Q: What sequence folds into this?
């Protein structure tokens, strides 16, 4: 992973081509690193900035007003770095804040994870029966239910908040009997044995870490849809349409901001990235 | 539970006797309600205010600087209500912030949960071998290890962060195989079969909810010490020494403040209190 300080570039007054400007990726903590990773793999030449608001994580159990306020503070900070696109890599934040962000930053490309995830699930479903698992706030806000309903009005959607999968992923307990029992306990409420979903949408960025366990529990016939991959495809499409794909052949730079407990961010983040985080590329910032 | 607005009393300019002033109890979320409950049962005539900082919970994975800042903001708010005593009913906050609070509020009685918990464990141990389970921040800060060392320098202390027990308690999964497997996985690192602790100190306010499971796993010979009960005794002792015990024969009032998601605070808080929270007694406030 190469690193580069956009802040240093800005200080030096270096002028970036529009297409060379970074993509800002925001999440409440480390979960959005699954989206970061998908974007990084699909668009290796893009310069990427990631901001994880670890001082106020988790957003998933907070009120919509609070989530909106926190997300807008983080988005405003990312725009200081001259980004060409903002990706809200957090289901909870997307659900509460996306329309507000689009109107607040009219000149910026803004993508969330809900629409691409919902579209991918609608494309994947065979019988129009979709199960959605996410955090409490995402399920309560009904964002996936509504997005699927707009794309595929006849779809049947069952949704279940799987709160404990988030701390399990952060603890690194992503396989073994405990993870399996927890996942089973939640899934048993949407897979009851009668007219079960044919597609399971992972509506929380932490959940791709449990993909193997979830597939084992649902059986191979159920299609598991990961919004991280769907979001990366949408990012590429939006940049291409706006003629903002970075044409440079050099590998893009990666820089991480965290709002608290840098050591924990790096240690936990490694699970999600699937590789060690570069020490020099991780900076502690204050959003408050 | 009777309710009473101290704010209303202050607005009306009502003058309270010193001993009638409320006790302010602070926690990062709902965990401190186990301490609140213990104080409420031991001192039923005291007026109690509880503040749970649910907008920024959990503290247990945050840096010491951030924990200190958040705790001082909450303590300052509680002093607005003319409290006679401040109880930091949160191990993480006590560990990071107690000395700072004592110097910032020199005229206030201030108690944390670490010293009483450590003293109770030292009184309970037969062979001086104490296991401590708590959150990451409490274990990392070594507060219990140091407090036990001051009281019983020859004690052997083994400590283990049991991160997942916190969300498990809040999800209400306090018995059954998942809670048991999670607890077992953590305990197996301090109960290895050779020279095991004779006493287990519950160094997190959430953990008393797992007392039965923990006792089953350790076996009946291990003494389980709950800092909530020890803290309530200390509160009574400190108030008595300062001649500030409320002499009124009427049941004390109870009022709760939460900084976010009032509904969730009430629902989850009910698990910890062991009774429903009175709707009129719970108010949303903003600390930021």
A:
């Amino acid at each position: 992973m190469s690193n580069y300080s956009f802040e240093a570039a800005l200080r030096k007054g270096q002028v970036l081509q529009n297409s060379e400007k970074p993509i800002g990726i925001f999440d409440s903590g480390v979960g959005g690193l699954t989206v970061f990773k998908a974007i990084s793999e699909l668009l290796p030449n893009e310069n990427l900035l990631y901001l994880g608001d670890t001082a106020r994580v988790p957003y998933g159990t907070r009120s919509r007003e609070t989530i909106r306020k926190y997300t807008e503070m983080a988005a405003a900070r990312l725009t200081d770095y001259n980004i060409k696109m903002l990706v809200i890599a957090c289901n909870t934040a997307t659900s509460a804040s996306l329309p507000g962000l689009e109107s607040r930053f009219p000149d910026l490309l803004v993508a969330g994870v809900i629409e691409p995830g919902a579209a991918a699930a609608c494309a994947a479903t065979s019988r129009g029966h979709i199960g959605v698992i996410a955090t409490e706030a995402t399920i309560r806000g009904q964002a996936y239910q509504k997005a699927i309903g707009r794309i595929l009005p006849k779809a049947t959607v069952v949704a279940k908040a799987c709160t404990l999968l988030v701390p399990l992923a952060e603890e690194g307990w992503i396989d073994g009997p405990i993870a399996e029992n927890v996942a089973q306990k939640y899934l048993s409420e949407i897979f009851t044995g009668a007219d079960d979903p044919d597609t399971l949408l992972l509506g929380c960025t932490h959940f791709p870490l449990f993909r193997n366990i979830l597939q084992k529990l649902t059986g191979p016939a159920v299609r598991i849809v990961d919004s991280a991959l769907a979001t990366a495809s949408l990012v590429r499409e939006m940049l291409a349409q706006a003629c903002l794909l970075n044409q440079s052949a050099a590998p893009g730079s990666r820089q991480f901001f965290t709002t608290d407990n840098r050591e924990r961010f790096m240690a936990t983040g490694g699970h999600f990235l699937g590789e060690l985080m570069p020490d020099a590329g991780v900076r502690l910032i204050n959003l408050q």
Observations:
- Chain B has a mean pLDDT of 92.
- The interface with chain A takes residues 54-56, 61-63, 66, 136, 163-164, 166-168, 170-171, 173, 177-178, 181-182, 185, 260-261, 264, 288 of chain B (CB under 8 Å).
- The first strand of chain B starts at residue 23 and ends at 27.
